[in-house]
């Protein structure tokens, strides 16, 4: 009787307003229904609110210095940098990266080269030659690594063996193909692949444990 909006009057000493009185009355009604209505009580017990399940919302609390008067221009500069520079950069990087490799993680340029190398009559040795065209080797054998130790590797894999013509199992055709390659990275990649497939030990421990191991990982992946 005393708290109904039609009866109650705002108390200026308590900073009360008509809106405050209405909100308080709504809470009283909800409390009454919670005590007298089984469905409303079930909502309160299950969801903590007599109105039932409530939607969840999240907000971001900004530091005071960002919202303080006089700092608006700095906030605009920050947002401008984020939206005008950083966002396009990250989106562009993601897009370029997604277009550069396939879903299997192989460079698109490598796929094109492999497509050109393969044919209907390709044999196992031809497959090895095709794999050496992968652009992934450009990173593995970059710089001086493409020429370092190449002569040693070729000598080891071409050495005569007891049960085969060469230690790596290469034919004359395979040797000629290796010798015809002028591009250093591909030539060394092919030599290392033959060394791996032929289980040829190399005198240089760096070649055994480093570059050959990475070439091995590449051929196993393909």
List the SSEs and their pairings.
Blueprint: H1 18-36, H2 38-47, H3 64-67, H4 72-100, H5 108-117, H6 124-131, H7 137-140, H8 150-158, H9 172-180, H10 184-197, H11 205-221
Helix pairs in contact: 1-2, 8-10, 10-11
Tell me the β content: under 5%
**Strand/helix succession:** HHHHHHHHHHH
Oligomer: single chain
| Total DSSP helices | 11
CA radius of gyration is 37 Å
Structural class: mainly alpha
Description:
The chain is mostly helical and 222 residues long. It has three domains: 1-57; 64-100; 108-221, no CATH class. The chain contains eleven helices and no strands. Helix 8 (150-158) runs parallel beside helix 10 (184-197) and helix 10 (184-197) crosses helix 11. The N and C termini lie far apart (83 Å). The mean pLDDT is 77.
Short summary:
The chain is mostly helical and 222 residues long. The chain is built from 11 helices and no strands.
Structural key phrases:
11 helices, 0% strand, mainly alpha, 222 residues
């Amino acid at each position: 009787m005393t708290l109904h909006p039609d009866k109650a009057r705002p108390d200026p000493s308590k900073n009360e307003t008509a809106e405050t009185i209405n909100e308080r009355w709504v809470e009283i009604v909800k409390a009454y229904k919670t005590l007298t209505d089984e469905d409303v009580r079930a909502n309160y017990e299950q969801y903590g609110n007599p109105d039932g399940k409530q939607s969840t919302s999240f907000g971001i609390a900004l530091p005071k210095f960002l919202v303080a008067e006089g700092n608006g221009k700095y906030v605009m500069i920050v947002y401008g940098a984020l939206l005008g520079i950083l966002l396009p950069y990250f989106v562009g990087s993601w897009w370029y990266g997604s277009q550069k490799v396939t879903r299997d993680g192989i460079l698109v340029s490598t796929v094109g080269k492999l497509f050109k190398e393969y044919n209907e009559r390709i044999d196992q040795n031809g497959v090895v030659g095709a794999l050496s065209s992968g652009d992934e080797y450009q990173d593995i054998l970059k710089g001086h690594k493409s020429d370092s130790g190449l002569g040693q590797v070729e000598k080891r894999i071409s050495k005569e063996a007891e049960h085969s013509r060469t230690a790596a199992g290469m034919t004359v055709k395979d040797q000629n193909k290796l010798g015809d390659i002028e591009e250093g990275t591909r030539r060394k990649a092919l030599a290392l692949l033959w060394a791996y497939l032929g289980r040829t030990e190399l005198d240089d421990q760096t070649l055994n444990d480093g570059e050959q191991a990475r070439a091995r990982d590449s051929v196993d992946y393909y």
